[in-house]
Amino acid sequence: MKYLFGPVPSRRLGLSLGVDLIPPKTCSYDCLYCQIGKTTCKAVEPEAVIAELEETLAKVKPDYVTFSGSGEPTLHSELGRLIAYVKEKTGARAAVLTNGSLLYRPEVRERLRRADMVMPTLSSVKESTFRAIHQPHENLNVALLVEGLRSLRKSYKGQLFIEVMLLEGFNDQEEEIEALARTILEIAPDRVQLNTVVRPPADAKAIPLDRKKLEVIRNVFGESAEIIAAGPIREQRLFQGPLAAALLEMARRRPVTAEDVAGALNASLHDVEKTVTALLNQGDLHKQTHLGKDYYTT
Prior knowledge:
Blueprint: E1 4-10, E2 14-20, E3 26-27, E4 41-42, H1 46-57, E5 64-68, H2 79-90, E6 93-97, H3 106-111, E7 117-119, H4 127-134, H5 142-155, E8 159-166, H6 174-187, E9 191-196, H7 211-221, E10 225-227, H8 243-253, H9 258-265, H10 269-282, E11 286-290, E12 293-297
Parallel strand pairs: 2-5, 3-4, 5-6, 6-7, 7-8, 8-9, 9-10
Antiparallel strand pairs: 1-2, 11-12
Helix pairs in contact: 1-2, 9-10
């Protein structure tokens, strides 16, 4: 598959079939914490994506078809058409993981209109912190981001979950959190999801918060907030074909542990570890250690 990946177990969406519309890594941000790596271009073929969806959804029934992957999905001009296809032809629910940077544009909000769930990120309302964490395109700023989120909330009828990515020394101070909480509560999303760095980040300056600090911050956001960092993954599993090929496909999209692969593919951990060793020896995988865990990427 060129455009689809998974289904993979997701902390937030259950069994998620990913749709990757953007060449790696094309994004309006260059976030310190990004598990995909550094942005190479700041700034597809719909029929081919539809063909892959038809082929894959004939075999599997994910909880969500999730538009995410190697870059910012709202940069794709045909996103609305592809969401409509998922809704009309497959019966599956559609989710979009977005950095939210383009939501101030009416045509982008229109593309998201039929999605069941939109999950943008807002990690600071202070311009200097926003720029330090996300390193956005020069034409973007936090005021535009907040404007877009407010506009989306007014017009969008689906579920809106705002993700807050928390980094030690960047946006974990009391003043930062209180200002951010005020803004998010004014936007009134259905849920606030507190996250921190779980997988190896693009920049070593992206340091995670511990659970105790996350709990303190959750209390500031109130009842609509939940901590999703290192949360439980549903135990729905699906085998995706030859183990080595499936493992490489997962690792191409994001850093994975052997346990991630075993859980997603319903394979034994022993078999996965043997396959990982062989792929490392062949030079097809690269190992990174982050917070005491071994992660593998292509």
